[in-house]
């Protein structure tokens, strides 16, 4: 029994369509397979495409230049090594002023020479332990032109050898003190005679 013509023609046309599709697919495969092979053949041998590293670096790499460290310049010390010399403060030397004594003394310098006839009498007293001192000084006074009316010992405290004088006999006291080598003259005390000079000799007397 033979198939109808219409059915055969339909089967043939379907087969042709399938072959055409296969041919197209095969042509495409050949075309793409050939291009891929040619593109890889064009690359020079030994070259490899760099691949990115799997792990990115943590940050930009910094190149540290090996520059020798600069030595710090030592600043010059402004403070002087030695302390400035301070000028010593010298206290002015104060000359102690000699205060006036309770009893004013007559100056002994430049005594006026009194004539022998105008000189008052004098008494000489010994206020030391040296025996005969009053007699010795009385003899010296007589040799100098003085009249000695009395010689005795003095009981009391006297600072140094002194010629005591009444108010009107200052110049005579100065001259007698010079003749005897006595350094001090003073006004007469209340227990002394006011018509003559009184000489009291102490341990400082060396004449």
Strands, count = 5
Rounded mean pLDDT score: 73
Note the main sheet. 5 strands, mixed
Count of discrete alpha- or pi-helical segments spanning 4 or more residues: 3
Low-pLDDT windows of residues? 1-5, 36-47, 54-65, 94-102
**How far is the N terminus from the C terminus?**
204 Å
Corresponding CATH architecture of the domain at 124-201? 2-Layer Sandwich
Range of helix content:
25-40%
CATH topology of the domain at 124-201: Alpha-Beta Plaits
List SSEs in N-to-C order: HEHEEHEE
Radius of gyration, whole Å: 75 Å
**What does the overall shape look like?**
rod-shaped
- Supply the helix-strand structural class: alpha/beta
Q: Which range does the strand content fall in?
A: 5-15%
CATH secondary-structure class of the domain at 124-201: Alpha Beta
Order of neighbouring strands in the sheet with most strands: 2-1-5-3-4
Describe the overall structure.
- This protein is of the alpha/beta class and 207 residues long.
- It has a domain of 78 residues: Alpha-Beta Plaits (2-Layer Sandwich), CATH 3.30.70.
- It is built from three helices and five strands; from the N terminus they run H-E-H-E-E-H-E-E.
- A five-stranded mixed beta sheet has the order 2-1-5-3-4, with helices on one face.
- The longest helix is centred in the first third of the chain and has 38 residues.
- The N terminus is likely disordered.
């Amino acid at each position: 029994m033979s198939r109808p013509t219409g059915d055969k023609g339909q089967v043939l046309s379907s087969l042709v369509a399938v072959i055409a599709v296969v041919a197209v697919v095969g042509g495409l495969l050949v075309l793409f397979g050939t291009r891929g092979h040619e593109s890889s053949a064009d690359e020079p041998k030994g070259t490899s495409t760099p691949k990115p590293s799997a792990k990115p670096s943590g940050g930009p790499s910094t190149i540290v230049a090996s520059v020798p460290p600069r030595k710090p310049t030592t600043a010059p010390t402004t403070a002087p090594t030695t302390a400035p010399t301070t000028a010593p403060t010298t206290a002015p030397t104060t000359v102690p002023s000699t205060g006036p004594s309770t009893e004013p003394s007559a100056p002994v310098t430049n005594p006026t020479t009194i004539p022998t006839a105008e000189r008052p009498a004098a008494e000489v007293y010994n206020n030391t332990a040296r025996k005969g001192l009053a007699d010795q000084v009385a003899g010296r006074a007589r040799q100098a032109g003085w009249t000695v009316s009395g010689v005795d010992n003095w009981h009391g405290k006297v600072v140094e050898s002194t010629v005591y004088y009444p108010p009107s006999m200052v110049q005579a006291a100065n001259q007698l003190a010079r003749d005897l080598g006595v350094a001090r003259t003073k006004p007469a005390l209340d227990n002394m005679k006011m018509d003559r000079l009184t000489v009291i000799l102490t341990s400082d007397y060396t004449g």
